[in-house]
Structure of Integral membrane protein:
Amino acid sequence: MSGSPGSVRNGTDSFSIWRVPNFFFQPRGMYLGGLDEAIGGLNRLRSLLGLATLIVVAIVYQGFGRVVSAPYQPGQAKPEASNAVVNGRVYTFAAAEDRLGEIALSAILTAVAGIGVSVVVSLALVVAARRGARLATARQLLWPIGTVVVFVAYFWSFSVAFPWLDARLPGIVNFLILILPVIWFFKSIWLVVTGLFRADDGHPLLAPITSTITAWIFGVLAVRGAQPVGMPHPVWLVTVLGGPLSITVVAWIATRRLKRLYPESYPFRDGPLA
């Protein structure tokens, strides 16, 4: 049994060192005055779909889909196993480590794009609020902004701490010092991914709109990229567009549930309900 959302206490009301990231990165339902478990489940599903989408985009658009070709001359040395000869040309496919790098790069680009989209969506939500509720709406959106700042600072501290400790301490000591912060770091990643930097604390519609727009941005980029060699066109389209379509459906279900639960407040133009 776990503690309440955002609490550092566990189910027995005792301090839990493992729940420190929850204090910073777990949504609390501060806009609506409480959390809906079904919405939380949809958020987790949407995040898993988003993870699958960025992996597919990395593989199709930047990894497997990117090949380097050169003319193949008769008598030329036999290509390596990672190469192929098609219609008189040698096609060199990305190495496995390059593909993993592309996936990591896509994750970073997705996060950056998502933050950029969320800023635009946040401004639109403030403008859409009624005149007397715009200031309260803008103040509420400071929660996801603050969460982004804290996470970036945490990420930056790792980039500084790892090289500094590695240069001064033995490996085992380094490991013992960093094991807890590393566990916190990966838990923080899970919390910010599933909660989209506490987007629901800022506005109930921020996460569904932002995730849908971001997914389609990368979906369109993938479609505009080169189709992988040998992959049928219909299969390629389903692979590339399946993620954005799935995320859109999940976001639609979430917004429909919000409308059903809060019929008099939806689309929340009158500011926070809490």
